[in-house]
């Protein structure tokens, strides 16, 4: 996992070779996508506002040192975060994903 602050430090990109997410919920306006169980994927990238997510990140990192490593441009081989509420205000992409039990709520 790597955090890139370039070219826009206020909207960094978090890239992950592989991801495993338990309890994924994505909401936009009145549309909600919920995947009960485990979601796996590869080639994930999330671009969001650094300033709105810093408090969520600080409370979510299982190992606080990982946040410091990412902040200075380092790579974390395995990142564990719990109870993350992340507002994706730019984009989220994945090369591949397995969304078990996907439900769409309107």
Fraction of residues in helix: 10-25%
Structural class given helices, strands, pairing? alpha+beta
Radius of gyration: 14 Å
Give the total of domains. Answer: 1
First-residue to last-residue Cα separation: 33 Å
Q: Work out the number of β strands.
A: 6
What can you tell me about this protein's structure?
The protein is of the alpha+beta class and 106 residues long. The protein has one domain (2-101). It contains two helices and six strands; from the N terminus they run βββααβββ. It has helices at residues 50-60, 64-71, and strands at residues 2-4, 13-28, 31-47, 91-93, 96-99, 102-105.
Which key phrases capture this entry?
106 residues; six-stranded antiparallel beta sheet; 2 helices; 6 strands
Give the arrangement of secondary structure elements.
Layout: E1 2-4, E2 13-28, E3 31-47, H1 50-60, H2 64-71, E4 91-93, E5 96-99, E6 102-105
Antiparallel strand pairs: 1-2, 2-3, 3-4, 3-5, 3-6
Task: Please outline what is shown here.
The chain is an alpha+beta fold and 106 residues long.
């Amino acid at each position: 996992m790597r955090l890139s602050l370039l070219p826009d430090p206020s909207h960094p990109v978090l890239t992950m070779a592989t991801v495993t997410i338990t309890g994924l919920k994505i909401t936009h306006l009145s549309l909600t996508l919920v995947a009960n169980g485990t979601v796996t994927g590869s080639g994930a990238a999330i671009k969001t506002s650094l300033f709105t997510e810093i408090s969520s990140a600080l409370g979510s990192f299982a190992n606080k040192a990982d946040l410091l490593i990412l902040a200075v441009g380092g790579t974390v081989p395995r990142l564990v975060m719990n109870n993350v509420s992340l507002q994706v205000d730019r984009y989220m992409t994945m090369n591949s994903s397995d969304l078990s039990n996907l439900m769409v709520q309107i």
